[in-house]
Amino acid sequence: MIVQYGEEDQRTNLFVDGGQGQQVVRQLKEEIATISQKGECIDLLILTHIDADHIRGFLSLFSQSSFDKSCIKRVFFNSRKLLSQKFDTKVVYDDQLEIVQEKAEISFKQGESFDRYLEDLMIEKMTVIDNSCQPKLLNGAKMTILTPDEASLRKLYTDWEKAIQKETRDQLISGRNVNHQGSVEELIKKAFQEDRAVANGSSISFILEYEGKRLLMLADAHPSTVTAKLKELYGEKELHFDLVKVAHHGSKANTSDDLLKQIECENYLISSNKGNRHGFPHKEALSRIVYHNYTKKRPTNFYFNYSDASEGLFTNEEIKKYGIQLIKKKMNERVLTIDI
């Protein structure tokens, strides 16, 4: 995801994660080339956590000698090396790591590989990013870090090798038994079970504010941690957002009613393609959003970066009753653009 703001001749470019797959890498190259041709740069690259579907695109780019890394001025990424420095331990790398693979089971080891590329960037000294950080200022915008907390980072670092194995097992079974059937009314009655994946719990989620506009970028964060930080910062009240990037590709385990009680927003972005192994986006998660807005007499606009991800989610009756709009990239558009 690319967030751009500022005047035409002073545009700031914020890249959030890098996806995976050859098509994504090609698009990254094209977007970066366009930015460079305008005399601009990637002012900040945020790699929210170490899962392959968030980090592999830039891993692939960084492994190519033709890629000009100097276009990246600043990086937020909680690497294993940074965590070892924070927790005063020594990290030992596996020198036999294969840098770019197409299997998703290597996300934790990719985090180690990325460490080495970052050392070559020659950018300002990197530090661990967690929700104890003061708000960051970036060319007139204010960034407030919501997650991870220190406990989540410590768990990631402590369980690094164990988590590699667990992540693999979870990925093999997570797409099973995903049921997209059921009405909004039926799905909102299901008991919420929160995501417990260690890597997801370490995600960098944040609020970005610029000239009266406010974005909520939830990465794959655990909703309980996000909710706790929002309450700490803003109290027990809804906070207005112009756009929310839904957590974990629309997983039912990352959008809770407690979190939604803190959010006032009509516009939600879903970053997921149809037919993925996890069955994202889950209608159960989107139903919680829809019903929450319905009780507040608000419509809900869902934006999809993959057109097919919106197919078959809601019936025509549900779309009409709940005021749902499903907005997707047009056939002739290379990327989905949202102006707020």
Report the order of strands and helices: EEHEHEHHEEHHHHEEHEEHEEHEHE
Task: Record the strand order, biggest sheet.
Answer: 5-6-7-8-10-12-13-14
Strand percentage, roughly?
Answer: 15-25%
Q: Report the uncertain regions.
A: 93-106, 172-177
Q: How many H/I helices?
A: 12
Number of E strands: 14
Total domains: 2
Mean pLDDT: 84
Largest sheet: 8 strands, mixed
Q: Termini separation (Å)?
A: 15 Å
The share of residues in helices is 25-40%
The backbone outline, from C-alpha atoms, is globular
Gyration radius over CA: 19 Å
User: Which structural class matches the secondary elements?
Assistant: alpha/beta
Structure description:
By secondary structure, this protein is an alpha/beta fold. It folds into two domains: 1-128; 130-340, no CATH class. 34% of the residues lie in helices and 16% in strands. The protein has twelve helices and 14 strands. The protein has helices at 22-37, 52-62, 80-86, 107-119, 150-158, 160-173, 184-187, 198-201, 223-234, 257-260, 283-295, 316-322; strands at 2-5, 12-16, 44-46, 75-76, 136-138, 141-147, 205-210, 213-217, 239-240, 243-245, 263-264, 267-270, 300-304, 324-328. The strands form three sheets. An eight-stranded mixed sheet has the order 5-6-7-8-10-12-13-14. Strands 1-2-3-4 form a four-stranded mixed sheet, with no helix packed on it. It has a two-stranded parallel sheet with strand order 9-11. The radius of gyration is 19 Å and the shape is globular. The chain starts with a strand and ends in a 12-residue tail after the last strand. Residues 93-106 and 172-177 have low confidence and may be disordered.
